[in-house]
Amino acid sequence: MSELRDLSARKEKRAVRAFFAWELPAGAKAALGALARELSARPDGGTVRWVRNEGYHVTLRFLGNVATSLLPELVAAVRRELGATQPFEVTLGAPHAFPSAREPRVVVVSARPEAPLAALAARIEAGVVAAGLPAEPRRFRAHLTLGRVRSRRLPPLDETRAAAPAALRVAEVVLFQSDLGAGGSRYTPLARLPLPSSASPADPLPLPTSFQ
Length: 212
Prior knowledge:
It is a single chain. By secondary structure, the protein is an alpha+beta fold. Helices cover 25% and strands 34% of the residues. The protein is built from four helices and nine strands. The strands form two sheets. It has a five-stranded antiparallel sheet. A four-stranded antiparallel sheet has the order 3-1-8-9, sandwiched between helices. The radius of gyration is 18 Å and the shape is globular.
C-alpha cells in the first residue's frame, strides 16, 4: 500500500523521487559515453542496459520520495552544511562489476580519492537529517553507474583502463528529481548548490515555483 501511496503522491506532484549528486562535466560525460559504446559492442555487451550520457553522476545521498513542501527547507539545510566545504578534485577509475564479477548487478566506475566525496556526503547527510528526514544507515561508496546488468553475463571489462584519466573538479552539488520510464530514469535538476569558493554572487538555481 505504501508504494501505491508514493506513486499517487508523485502523480499529484505532492512528492518527488529525489537525490543529491555530483554531476559530471560535459567532457567527462562524453568520455564515459564513448567507453560505454565500446563496451556495448563487445561480446555480451547487450546484456547491460547502459546509462545515457546525460545520466552520469555520483550519487551523494539518495532520498527516495520527498514531499514537495519540504524541498525548500531541505535545500536550505544542506546549503548551510556545505558552507565550509571547498571544491576538490577526483579521478575516475576503470570500469568493473559490482558487487562482484560472480554476482554482478551493475557496471560501475569508482571515484578517487573517496575521502573528500565521503566528507561531502556526510555534510549533505547532516543537512538531510536536520530537515527532518531519516538518517541513511548504509555506508557511502563513491561510484558512478555505467550500466545495469540484465543477466550474469558481462562484456569483457578492461579493469586497468581509467574511464577518464584527467582530474575532475567537484564544485557543485545538485538536487535531482528522478522520473522512471520505459527508456530508463530521467533526471531533472531542482537546485544547484555551488561549493563556497566556486559560488558566484548570484543565488544558486532556485527550486521551480511549483515546489516553493
